[in-house]
Amino acid sequence: MKIIDAKVIVCCPGRNFVTLKIFTDTGIYGLGDATLNGREKAVATYLEAYCIPALIGKDPRNIEDLWHYFYKGVYWKRGAVTMAAVSAIDMALWDIKAKSLNTPLYNLLGGKSRERVLVYAHATGKNLEQTIEDVGKKVENGFLAVRVQSGVPGLEKIYGVSKDDKPYEPAQKGLPKEESWDTAKYLNYAPKMFMKVREVFGDELHLLHDVHHRCTPIEAARLAKELEPFHLFWLEDPVTAELQEGLRRVRQHSTTPIAIGEVFNSVYDYTTLITEQLIDYIRMPLSHGGGITHLQKVVAFASIYHIQTGFHGATDLSPINLAASLHFDLAINNFGIQEYMPHEEVVQEVFTANYRYANGFLHIDDTPGIGVELNEDKAEQFPYQTACLPVNRKTDGTMFYW
Ligand code: GCO
Ligand code: MG
What we know:
This protein is an alpha/beta fold. The protein folds into two domains: 3-104, 2-Layer Sandwich (Enolase-like, domain 1), CATH 3.30.390; 108-370, TIM Barrel (Alpha-Beta Barrel), CATH 3.20.20.120. 35% of the residues lie in helices and 21% in strands. The chain has twelve helices and 20 strands. The strands form five sheets. Strands 4-5-8-9-10-11-12-13 form an eight-stranded parallel β-barrel. The protein has a three-stranded antiparallel beta sheet with strand order 1-2-3. A three-stranded mixed beta sheet has the order 7-19-20, with no helix packed on it. A hairpin with a 5-residue loop joins strand 1 and strand 2 (17-24).
């Protein structure tokens, strides 16, 4: 089998997506998600200028070798843009292999370890009252796990809270918009919020929360400790984990489980966190973390240290990534939970997905390959639009992490 062509399809059904399509001489093609929120064109150019020409003529069945060709073989390795491109290639190659063997992808990853995938939903509100109401809606929808984010009194625009009645979507048209931040206000509010949520919804519901990289290690330790009585499923990105050692501080003070890694793209971002057991869940998605080939290694490494998965699954990762993640989630032993933010209906006009939600779980059907189709005619009707993630400043104007 040979790769005869490949192309990048960029489209914007409500938000931008980048898809790599690899064609073979057998008529079988594969799809990979190459979307990097707010940096879509950088990945598209990297693929078009440097990867696609090198793919032509190669045997798509040699996935391990091709992965290393684009990783080890490249002097300027790692980084979000490069690894999103490597991930998309890898995903498309696994799609081709599974289709050529006429089997769903999970069969090539060890088969099923479970029949369905536990997911968590997002609940948000501008204030505590609205947040409680939204958690209630998710519970009514059957979700067993809910991530809770809320506006903080005294802060106007904040991560994780929708500006309108639509589901939360951080990327906005044009240049980055500014949000504001005050750690003291947040740290005072978050434990009170979770106390109320537990009071209303009881002990059974799994609760998750995303700090979005905004605390210092000692602030994160305080937060994790104060949230301990509310038994969170996880506290996500309490610190910016560039400083992996910072997580030691959090661990010293609390038993709140920690999830990290949606902005990571290599096992080397994780080595201290995994070997010192400083985290409990890895978040690095297939589409940014080097695809199935690399995640298999990272997840096996994590399993030795009793660390589980909780893959990133926000709306900026396309249905191809979500479907590939579900195959992976079904197959591995150390699966924890999968993030699930349903895409808007217009996205489903372009991507035909093979998964469905029911009673707190996602189910995937047995379509060979990853199982998602991309309608190129439809994609053309939604051309790319510049959109960026926000930037964040402290209330005194200091530039801060978003
Ligand atoms: C999450 C994430 C997202 C990111 C977004 C950035 O936990 O789902 O933090 O909300 O901010 O994916 O592109
Ligand atoms: Mg997050």
